[in-house]
């Protein structure tokens, strides 16, 4: 039986929700990805994205597998690993990477032990790898609320944030609350990461959180452009992936990451100033 045309598919409420989710989640993740790239914390975000799994496991064990229990469990696990690693590094001899490594592996191992005794494999696959087509209206409202909070917060804090990212000592001397800013921005990043959980899952979410600004970073030296450019690229790439995935029969979640990865590869090769060809011309 042939698939309905893309026009017929877009007439369905499920398709409209998925397209809107691509737009919102793509923009918010792309916007926040500027902070991740400038802070050079992509590996930390990757660790935190994988730490969402034990949070889901604990939530299922305590309250059963539902939309809200999974969301709360994921946020709790991410905050424990993310903000907990910052706290441990501030209050001990350990650096944040070491503290995060201990917290992440311990939490992940505990989550595996819990999941071994739970029969929810099919639903958990959606949280691990994403199911943007299956998003409900409540999922969209959660994504919209978190996206709005993230963009407004990072826009309001952009000036002190940029000073802190490039010159932390100067930021402290100017009276910028560096420690509070560190916790706040990390918390916002975690919330955005969790908001994309239903769309792209724990495993692929790091790609959506890093690739947009990493691509823009190869095209410009303007730090402020990274935020809005990353947001626009994340939204455009996600929408393109939505329209590509349907006729090809691909997973929307995986297609989003493939499209954004392709944009990054093109920027790496053809960027006028920092591309592979421009470097070769400079050497010649």
Describe this structure as you would to a colleague.
With 284 residues, the chain is an all-alpha fold. Helix content is 82%, strand content 0%. It has helices spanning 6-10, 13-38, 42-63, 67-91, 96-115, 121-129, 137-156, 158-166, 168-173, 178-195, 197-217, 223-248, 252-270, 276-283. The radius of gyration is 19 Å and the shape is globular. It is built from 14 helices and no strands.
Features of the shown structure:
single chain, 284 residues, mainly alpha, 82% helix, globular
Task: Briefly summarize what is shown.
This protein is mostly helical and 284 residues long. The chain contains 14 helices and no strands.
What string gives the helices and strands in order? HHHHHHHHHHHHHH
Query: Any idea what the radius of gyration is?
Result: 19 Å
Helix count? 14
Mean pLDDT: 81
Shape: globular
Q: How would a textbook summarize the main sheet? A: none
Structural class: mainly alpha
Give the end-to-end Cα distance, rounded to a whole number of Å. Answer: 57 Å
| Helical coverage, percent range | over 70%
Number of separate strands: 0
Tell me the strand percentage band: under 5%
Stretches with pLDDT under 50, minimum 5 residues: none
How is the secondary structure organized here?
Elements (H helix, E strand, L loop, with lengths): L5 H5 L2 H26 L3 H22 L3 H25 L4 H20 L5 H9 L7 H20 L1 H9 L1 H6 L4 H18 L1 H21 L5 H26 L3 H19 L5 H8 L1
Helix pairs in contact: 2-7, 2-10, 2-11, 2-12, 3-4, 3-5, 3-10, 3-11, 4-5, 4-10, 6-11, 7-10, 11-12, 11-13, 12-13
